[in-house]
Structures are given as C-alpha cells and as structure tokens.
Amino acid sequence: MSPSVPAHTPQRREVEVLTDLFGDGLTDGRISWQPYVQPGREAVDVHWLYSGRETGPDGAEAYIAHFRPGAHGDLHRHLGFELMLVLDGELVNDNGDRYRPGTLVVERPDSVHRVTSPDGCRLLVVREKRTVALLPGESPDADLALTGAPTRP
C-alpha cells in the first residue's frame, strides 16, 4: 500500500502553454510575434516567454525566435549559459556549424558568437543571464567562437 498523499488545492497562477511546436503550432497564428529590435540584429521576431523585465537586469530570459530568411543575430558575449533548440529550419553559427530541427546547442559563459539563418528558422532560446552586444572588431571577438565543440550527427 502506498503512503497517503496530503490533499493539495491548486492555486490560481498564470501559465503559458504553447502546443504543437514541432508541427503547426509555430505557424498557425497562435503565437504572437514582435520584432526583436537590437543593433546588429536583423529580420528576427520573438515571442517572449520571460525576460529581464521579470527577472531583473542580469536575469534569465527565454523566448521563441523566428529568423526570417537571411536574418542574423548580433555579435554578442554570453554572461551565462544559453540553450538553443532548433524547432524548424536551419541555424548557422559563425564557426560554420549548421543546426537542424531537434538540435540542442549549449553556448557557455564568455563565449562570443553570431548566428544567421539563410533560409529561415525558429528556435527556443533560454539564457541564464543576458548577453552583451559587441561591435565587429571589438575585443574579444577574434576566433573565440571558432573554438566551439564539434557538431555531432
């Protein structure tokens, strides 16, 4: 016989649920997209799950990104870990790695990189801490992203 579990009354809370993200859920109009306006970033829309507004200026953030064809992110340094899960399309990292649907990418703190998507893609991005934008040629962007781990099939 299993031990009895004390009664629990669920509390009211705000919960966001996005369904069918590997199917029509990304394209059927249920997700509200807004432009991700940031110097050095072009043709990227996002659906914020949570951001620094809720977690503080150096806090965590998570969003679903929609890179339109030819889009690119800014050149930036990570202050904490970043997870990127490719949901559809293909994301290209500046070290030449190409990430297709189902690929999980982990960028480490202090890594510097810039991503692009020649044909467009959508991905889930979860950042432990914010990033710091860098200008091309600004230290440290020399070869840091080129030391990333190799892509595994």
Automatic annotation (TrEMBL):
Domain of life: Bacteria
SUPFAM superfamilies referenced in this protein's UniProt entry, alphabetically: RmlC-like cupins (SSF51182)
Residues in ChrR-like cupin domain copies: 31-126
InterPro entries reported for this sequence: ChrR-like_cupin_dom, RmlC-like_jellyroll, RmlC_Cupin_sf
Protein name, entry field: ChrR-like cupin domain-containing protein
